[in-house]
Every structure is written in structure tokens, then in C-alpha cells.
What we know:
- The chain has 294 residues and is an alpha/beta fold.
- The longest helix is centred in the middle third of the chain and has 31 residues, at 95-125.
- The chain folds into two domains: 10-123 and 277-289, Aldehyde Oxidoreductase, domain 3 (Alpha-Beta Complex), CATH 3.90.1170.20; 125-274, Aldolase class I (TIM Barrel, Alpha-Beta Barrel).
- α8 links the parallel β8 (200-204) and β9 (221-225).
- It has helices spanning 10-24, 29-34, 56-66, 95-125, 144-153, 171-177, 180-194, 207-214, 229-239, 256-260, 271-274, and strands spanning 40-47, 51-52, 71-74, 81-82, 87-94, 132-134, 167-169, 200-204, 221-225, 244-248, 266-268, 281-289.
Amino acid sequence: MNTGDSLNDSSIGRVIELALMEDIGLGDITGDAILEETDLAAAEFLCKGEGIVAGIDVAGIVFSYCDHSITLHRLVQDGSAVNPGLVLARIDGNAKGILRGERTALNFLQRMSGIATLTGRFVRAVAGTGAKITDTRKTAPGLRALDKMAVRLGGGVNHRFGLDDMVLIKDNHIVAAGGIAAAVTRCRRYLGERRVEARIEVETKNLAEVDEALSCTGVGRIMLDNFDTGTMKKAVERIGRRVEVEASGGITLDTVRTCAETGVDFISVGALTHSVKALDISLELTQTARGRAH
């Protein structure tokens, strides 16, 4: 199972390498024309928006891939609240390497900070209710580990990372199996035969499906998909803490508090990662020196 808990995760290194290859191609012809191999530079990440920063350490890895002489000095920690005008980090080292990594580093930093910022808004909106904000698999292809890391830095929790992470019986599975009970039975048999430990969650569309899911042995969480808040509250009361309850489906900042107050345990929000508004951050060169690199 890919937990994405560490920047040492090999998938993150592969993503960074691919992003740099995509951007640099056969070489930075502008930087190569203007700069010497030994030129040094200093730069800083300048925040131009209000939010939660995420991805500073990832940006540092990007620059280290471009040139091992480059160092990044964090001035704030990932997960910190930031405001316009705040310098997030300073970068020193080979000038060509800094400019080669600039766009890729900013792409990761701005996207991750945007995810963390929106997650933080949802988390604050449900404060005191006991509900946790969680993400989905609606992430940018190849960026799931970083997208989900950003959700955690914003105060949310992660749902499953992939199809191998847990059993989530959704509407199409239910149709294919001929009903919730049949789908759960098949999944339990599959897990038992292979001696695989995995939690089982069932997506439901109405109270009748909630009752059917409750009648099945082995279900650990029930998802209430696109329930109105009145029906959601009835479902929570009917479930009675026997299993975890997750609300899902079109939940916004305007509706999330009302949803949380029904007593659900988790609220999944696909928009955290599928509709990202990047936090405005720039990289500004502050100093150059010709011919002094080691």
C-alpha cells in the first residue's frame, strides 16, 4: 500500500524527475545562452496570497535534482498559515540550476499550497463537530502522493490511496454483483481466500441501501452519497455508531457545516484535489555572481 507518508517515497522522486524532463527537454536554451556554467545566484520564494503553504520541501528536492550545489533555506514550515509579502524560503547555488528548476518547483509548490489552503478552509468550517475532512482519488494523474500530502498539511485526512488500499463497493459494483449483500459477500470471500486484510466500505444512495449495508457482516463504513441533510441525519441515527459514516457528493464550503452537524464521521470532498486554485507564489532572483561557483 502506498501511504505517501514520506518525501523518501520513490513515487515522489519519479514524479519530480518526469516533471523536470518534461520542462527541460534537451536543455534550457535561454539560460544556457545567458549564463555561464559557474555563475551563482540567490533567489527567494515570495508569497503573494493568503493561505496554507505546502510543498517547500518538495521544491528543495527539485532544485537538488537540477544541481547538487543548490541549497534551500526554509523560513516557514510546510503547513503554516501565510500572507502576501512573506518570504517562504531562500535558494542559493548554481544560477543555471535555479532557473532550470524554477517553473517545476513553483508548479508543485503552488498546487500543493492551493490544496492545503482549500482543505484548511473546510477543516475550519467543521471545527467542533467531530467530523473529519477527507480527500478522494480525484487527483491529478501521477501526483496523488503529493496531492494527498497537501491535504494532510491542510489539516485533512486521507481516504484510500488506490484500488489496493481498501474495499469500496460503489454503485457500479453493486449493479454488477446484483445488490449490496451479494457484493459484500463476494468481497469478504475474496479477502478471506487470499488472506488479505482490508476494510470494507459501501456506498449507499438511500435509506433502504443503508439498511441493507447494515445487515451485512464485515462492513466498517457506510458512505451516504448525495443525501440531503434531513435524510443524512436519519441515516446517522439509524446507523447508531455501529460503523463509521462518510458523507459524499457535491459538498461545498457553504453546505459542509450543516452536513457535519448531522453527526457523520467523515466528509469527503473531491474538489480539494480535482479543482485546485493555485496559491500565488513567485520566485524572485535577488543576487547573481559570475564565475565563482565551485
